[in-house]
Amino acid sequence: MKAALMHAFREPLRVTDVPDPEPPAGGVVIRVGACGVCRSDWHAWMGHDPTIRLPHVPGHELAGTVAALGAGVTHWRVGERVTVPFCCGCGRCQTCRAGYPHVCDAEYQPGFTGWGAFAEYVALPYAEVNLVRLPDALGFVEAASLGCRFMTAFHALTAQGRVQPGEWVAVHGCGGVGLSAVMIAAALGARVVAVDLDDAKLERARALGAEHVLRSAHPVGAILELTQGGAHVSLDALGSAATLRNSVRCLRKKGRHVQVGLLLGESRPTALPMGEVIAKELELRGSHGMPAHAYPQMLRMIAEGTLAPQRLVGKTLTLEEAGAELAAMGRFAPRGVSVIVL
Predict the structure, then answer these.
(1) pTM for the whole thing?
(2) What are the φ and ψ backbone dihedral angles of 79, each rounded to 5 degrees?
């Protein structure tokens, strides 16, 4: 098969022929139809993830068709159209049994723990508890765009942020995660303030449902004023020391901060305004993907037209273009979701 192979960190990917994967016991091989290019892939390419062993194939936002079944797989058939959370739980550990396979003690992440989907085929373990059937009306490009960013934003707002109609939601950073969060929060009936430094991204945020947009590196005062006391829920959708602090500090009393953007590299050591956390009795939560069993609510909203992830797709790419798009993530250049079509 053809795959975009990473031989060294921060160097161009090379599309080359590699052996086709075999399905592991309890797992499957997926014929990849589409795969998103995500900032998490950029972190991997930069060498920020210690789990990666070179040579490596990135890619975790995938959709495709079941091509082969491993021993013991009974709930799936060759030819079924599927997607998968980027964090695949084992289904056996205490965390999985409690209903949280997306934070499994023995999680498997395609494109990180093992080779990913910047390739014609990808092998996945734990198929019985992680694969998600795709509705016939949902194409592979749109399904791949759900991948890491959209479903993480959905989980962040519904499960972690517990957003209610009429509440104020602040979204810091309007890349793929942030724009997804704007659309989802608006669909949930929230009033959204979107923050970024890029006018074009803010225009898209407004088109996706943001009531207010702020082009500012210091938005706290403006958010407190616009919301008459602060946001009920605030997301750091970028992942930096500055956006994290802004997100916490723009909350009203009893507000909920959700950290979605990864704090890696230079942003890893981050000071929090704990005085405000204590005085306002704020909640601080992380959001790490979404379990497969939570997909039906999101897919229903898509089927009803309440959510339209296809509006977030900025462009489609060939496998040969994946490396350049990945490098561009470091400049925050892509607008919307970029998807490789195979």
Answers:
(1) 0.92
(2) 100, -10
